[in-house]
Amino acid sequence: MKTHKILPSVLSTALAASLFITGCSQTPSLTSLSAQVADQDQSQQVQLLPVEAYFNEQGISGLKSSSDGKLLAFFKEYQGAKNIYLMAAGADLDTAFPITTSKDPINSFRWSRQGDEIFFLKDTGGNENTQIYKLSLDTSQPKPVPNITALTSNIDIRYDLLKQPKDKPNTLVVMSNQDNPQQMDLFRLNINSAKITNIFSNTYGFSSIETNQRGVPVLGTSSNPDNTSDLYAKIDGKWTSLIKTKFGEDIDILSFDEDNNLAYLRANIQGRDKLQLLRLNMTTGKIVTLHQDPQDESDVYDVLFNDEGAPLAVSYYGGRLRTYPLDDTFAGNWQKINDHFTQDVEITITDRNEKTGLWQIHVASDVDMGSDYRFNAKTGLVSLLLEQEASINPELLSKRQSITYQARDGVNIQAYLTLPKGQSKNLPTIILPHGGPWSRDYWTLSSGYFNPIAQLLANRGYAVLQPNFRASTGFGKRFLNLGNKNWGTGSMQDDLTDGAHFLIDQGIADKQRLGIMGASYGGYAALAGATFTPDLYQAVISYVGPSSLITLLESFPPHFRPYLGQFYSAVGDPEIAADRQDMLARSPIKFVDRIKAPLMLVQGANDPRVTQLESDNIARVMYKQGLPVEYILAKDEGHGFRKRDNKLAYIVAMEQFFGEHLGGRVDKAVTPSLATHLDTLKVDVSRL
Fold it and tell me: Rounded distance, CA 502 to CA 515, Å?
């Protein structure tokens, strides 16, 4: 049972990976960066690979088995948008066929507890107002026939699917701001009649909530305006605060054992720096630490629970992932799985059926999007479930190294470095900060929106550095809170600058050919790099990045506002005069006259988080000041490009932009239709 998050990471990039429990096989030993670089073969450049190959149109993700294990559903593109495909388990992949054909990408899906049904979520044009759909499969036909019913249909309202209660499988528990635009309440949705009933008015401002097997809310955590949290439990019909955190502390509900009245938490409360696995006895109030990182490197990353709600294993993610079994039976099975894979990979348990004994596992690496396997706990055997053919031979891709460098004040920064194959000296270099900023980068190729782009850039001759700078999650609350009030001109930006200088000092980066690119918070960091360190970068790309911290906070949708306490602590409250002045001093839009590097802006017109105004404003000012600016705008996208033609067009524009200003290689054999589509996305900034 997973924590049910109400609010998405407000400034994260459009793509995030959701993993259950993961481990790595044959984790490489840590060596110094100089030793790693020295091992690179200084040979001739590899062949230039086409942009399309890095985003395989036939690529598969999100594989899920039906409850009986007989059917497999997964994501794959249909006419350029992510849709759901179906096939029989054990069949050839070419037998798979689409069961949705939406022009807007499907956001997520899950199998129903009741046989051959699937529930999926989809928004309109990237506006993030997701609607819930039921897909029923008629399996009496040789080829199952899908029938789709919209269970919600108000595109101005957001609906999030939390749970299909075990004891009430004809209903869904959903969160929505249907009754109050500023509040995400809890509803029961009948999957047969589509009748929706409010069962909990979220006046407590819960940012996560847990229900029992009947779908009744029993636990919740609030996100308070002062950046504290409360853990509430419903006791004798009344919501009672059991734990109140201090400033900047986190407490997540992981699982609820209703029979024993136990809650399992991931928290850094009561003097803890890293998130630890805790057990709360809701009867006595006693808290017990069940596990913490033996290396004191990272927060609890994830926990796997059995059907009764007890933990089986816990994992941590520093530069690479480590897993620790908590149960002897699980430990034996986990060892069998790891023994099966001899290469350097990370293994993800994506499903575990205790009745059948069948586990679904995903195996991936830094150069392989991965394949899915099935482990039979009764026989101890691992078998291939679904293997997809890579669009690029992994041997042609670059290894992704986890490195550590020291910032100017002595704080260690973990980062990922991708180098062109056979090259390691005096390279054009891209600094690529992640979004969030309360997020982080990971090692596997499929674990981040920009990881395939980093590989493409390496193929074009660039070194790519992806730092987990201060305020990144996963490294403890002290590291995260060091980012407070340090956006743009403080330590968060210094961590990026220091990473660039580290690569220069190592002889890897050519200081005359440095670029920075990022999305969301990373886009803001790119603009901050252009304005606050104008002599460092020679090319800058801001992808859905805010140019003003004030208009950013003032433009959030109403239902985000109850959860903005962390933003007020980290960025400031524009309604407080001193904060507003500080936010102005950190807003790139106020310092456009400092910009020396050419700038490219990339924006979705329907973005509800970083609105089009952010890019329009800085493009307009740059044009008036005669500064070089290019602008890519997709009218059918939101916070990040999800449609294939838009994504590929942006990447072609990126490749050409960096090639022109930093000297990397450029593939001139662009598909004519793609070049034509890119032309439709280009904005004439003189007319803004």
Answer: 15
Q: What is the pLDDT of residue 68?
A: 85
Neighbours of 221 (CB within 10 A): 27
Q: pLDDT tens digits for 553-567? A: 998 877 777 778 889
What strand order describes the sheet that includes 117-122?
A: 106-111, 117-122, 131-138, 145-150
Residue 483 CA: distances (Å) to CA of 468, 495, 521: 12, 10, 12
Integer Rg of the chain from CA: 24
Per-residue pLDDT for 32 more than 70? Answer: no
Q: Which of 615, 613, 549, 630 is nearest to 582 (CA)?
A: 549
Here the tokens at position 422 are 């056979």
Give, rounded to a whole angstrom, the gap between the first and last alpha carbons of the chain. Answer: 49
Percent composition of the chain: helix, strand, coil (DSSP 3-state, to 5): 20, 35, 45
Q: What is the mean pLDDT of residues 396-411?
A: 97
Listed in sequence order, the DSSP H helices in 420-564 are 451-459, 477-481, 491-505, 521-532, 549-554
Dihedral, CA atoms, 448, 449, 455, 456, nearest 10 degrees?
A: 180
pLDDT of amino acid 56: 84
The DSSP H or E segment spanning 174 is strand 171-176
Give the C-alpha separation, 255 to 275, whole Å. 15
**DSSP assignment string, 375-436:** EETTTTEEEEEE----SS-GGGSPPEEEEEEE-TTS-EEEEEEE--TT--SSEEEEE---SB
Tokens 């992994």, residue located = 394
**Which of 320, 317, 444 has the alpha carbon at shortest distance from 370?**
444
Q: Name 430's bridge partners.
A: 464, 515
- Whether 305 and 1 have beta carbons less than 8 Å apart is answered as yes
pTM of structure = 0.92
User: For residue 128, is it left (φ>0), alpha (ψ between -120 and 50) or beta?
Assistant: left
Residues in the chain: 688
SS3 594: helix
More confident residue, 45 or 298: 298
Classified as helix, coil or strand, 124 is: coil
Biggest distance spanned by C-alpha atoms of the chain = 72
- Distance of alpha carbon 220 from alpha carbon 562, whole angstroms: 14
Comparing 564 with 14, the larger pLDDT belongs to: 564
Tally of helices (H runs) and strands (E runs) in the chain: 12, 37
Q: Enter the DSSP assignment of 51.
A: G
pLDDT grade for 215, boundaries at 50, 70 and 90: very high
Pairing relationship of beta strands 321-325 and 251-257 according to DSSP bridges:
unpaired
Q: With b meaning 16 or more CB within 10 Å and e meaning fewer, what string describes 666-676? A: bbeebeeebee
Between CA 319 and CA 323, with CA 321 as vertex, the angle to 5 degrees is 150
Segment 158-172, tens digit of pLDDT: 999 999 998 999 999
Burial 543-567 (b: 16+ CB within 10 A, else e): bbbbbbbbbbbebbbebbebbbbbb
| Burial class for 254, CB neighbours closer than 10 Å (0-12, 13-18, 19+) | buried
Calpha distance 159→174 (Å, rounded): 7
* CA 2 vs CA 305, 318, 538: distances in Å: 9, 22, 44
